[in-house]
Amino acid sequence: MWSREYRETRQVLHSPPYRKNIFGMPVEFKTEFLVVGAGPAGASCAWGIASRGGRVVIADRSRFPRPKLCGGALSDYGVGLLTGKGMLLSRELDDLTVALHGSLSCFDGSTLLGTWNDARPAMRLVDRTSFDSFLLRRAVEAGAVPLTGAEFLGLERGAAVFADGARVVFDRMLGADGAASTVRRRVYGRPGGGRLGLCLGTFVPLAPAVLERFTPLGLQVRFGLLPYGYGWVFPRSDDLCIGVGSFGKNVPPVDVRKAMEALLAALELNPRSPLRGALIPLPETRVLPGRGRVLLGGEAAGLCDRVSGEGISHALESGFLAAEALMAGNDAWHADSRCVSQVKKSGFFRHLLYHPVLRPLAMKKLRESDLYHRVYWGIVAGRLDYRALLQPSRAARTSAT
Ligand SMILES: Cc1cc2nc3c(=O)[nH]c(=O)nc-3n(C[C@H](O)[C@H](O)[C@H](O)COP(=O)(O)OP(=O)(O)OC[C@H]3O[C@@H](n4cnc5c(N)ncnc54)[C@H](O)[C@@H]3O)c2cc1C
Questions:
Q1: Are residues 20 and 299 in contact, defined by beta-carbon separation less than 8 angstroms?
Q2: Cα(263) to centroid of ligand 1, in Å?
Q3: Whose CA is nearest to atom 51 of ligand 1?
Q4: For 69, which of 3, 38, 122, 178 is 20 to 30 Å away at the CA?
């Protein structure tokens, strides 16, 4: 049932095509492919399908542009995926970049362990509100049909049901609806839902003179504020992105809040800055890429680094791979994927950095040599594998070339 409204909304990003038909009845769409969630995982998947000529509806409960709490550090690997696949041009990515950092400073609590100034490749920060909107726009330009303001509730007689009563009848779908994925819970049940951790963050607008105080340190990573996680201070063009999160352990929300307050106090910033919270998959959340008719991608699949919390490039990779699998009729997308293996490894290697017995040694290494800064950077930039931590000198040489 491909209606006139369907065609007309191909260029519209903001609103769903329609809510009700002329009789006031909920609308039913038919599509080959349905993507639920229009973050990086969903948008890359919808783009991948639409640009190969597949008929795809991409649904999101938010209307875009929508706010998204995130550090916005986009790894070199993520950049390579976006430009390599042709979803974005380098020039467009440059326009979406709000800061480029070639320095990394690691702290243990409030003690500076060291600043590594030649961090290469420079780390790119994007603003997620505009970045995500742009990715969705690209998917829509390629032919994906946006259904925004549409909250997915579950599956009923083979169709996806949305909060406003709309139904989408589909052949295959991708659940890319983030850490607290409803698709994952409804289709794969509670064990798939997993445990979620809380991150807190804020964006503090600063006058250029004040911001200059922070820029020489580049990206600040502050270990020791809370177990199995860190605080970050990322200077952007006219504000600081600050936050705390524990990616490797479930920390009570009250402790996350205390860590955030301690960080703001250490930075001598207004402790009453409005804070926002966001959930993140924890190691107990099994990596679950789905199988058959309903696949999962991005954080819905549990893809989030257990050391750094990084997830944008994993979301993109899973989205592109899922698009290929859905269109090829393959049962799964994740065989040989880098993101799944990297996330699984991070679950093990997190102990080297955060375990109470090993942590002092890790801090000592970061204090005494820039070798570990270089390796840490190489991993976060997506150039090195976690195994590089076992042979840092060799890995640092490889990543420099
Ligand atoms: C505080 C914080 C800082 C972070 N910093 C970084 C960083 O610097 N670098 C990095 O790489 N990663 C970072 N991450 C992780 C990164 O934000 C995520 O891994 C990434 O956004 C995952 O993309 P996604 O597409 O899977 O999900 P999301 O980006 O979360 O998108 C999911 C979409 O699904 C929609 N949705 C949810 N439920 C429904 C529903 N029922 N029906 C319809 N739509 C629904 C949402 O509105 C949303 O648009 C950070 C995370 C947090 C919490």
A1: no
A2: 23
A3: 70
A4: 122
Distance between CA atoms of 284 and 304, rounded to whole angstroms? Answer: 12
In this structure, the answer to whether residues 180 and 303 fall within a common structural domain is yes
Query: CA 109 → CA 112, 113, 161, 230, distances in Å?
Result: 8, 10, 47, 9
Q: Do 280 and 304 belong together in one domain?
A: yes
CA of 124 to the centre of ligand 1 (A): 18
Give the count of domains, the chain.
2
Residue located nearest, by CA, to atom 18 of ligand 1: 311
pLDDT, tens only, 46-55 = 999 999 999 9
Same domain as 375, residue 279:
no
- The per-residue b/e assignment along 70-105, b for 16 or more CB within 10 angstroms, e otherwise, is bbbbbbbbbbebbeebebbeeeebeebbbbebebbb
Statement to judge: residues 197 and 137 lie in one domain: yes
CA of 371 to the centre of ligand 1 (A): 32
Same domain, 65 and 141: yes
CA-closest candidate to residue 287, choices 338, 250, 251: 338
Q: Report CA(37)–ligand 1 centroid distance (Å).
A: 9
Separation of CA 4 and ligand 1 centre (Å): 32
Nearest CA owner, ligand 1 atom 37: 177
Residues 208-249 have pLDDT tens digits of 988 999 999 999 999 999 999 999 999 999 999 999 999 888
- Ligand 1: residues with CB < 6 A are 36-42, 59-62, 69-73, 151-152, 176-178, 182, 199, 201, 243, 245, 278, 280, 298-300, 304, 309-312, 315
Angle at 37 between CA 33 and CA 40, to 5 degrees: 100
114-173 tens-digit pLDDT = 998 877 778 999 999 999 999 999 999 999 999 888 999 999 988 999 998 888 999 999
Q: For residues 163 and 116, what is the distance between their CA atoms, to the nearest angstrom?
A: 49
CATH number at residue 3: 3.50.50.60
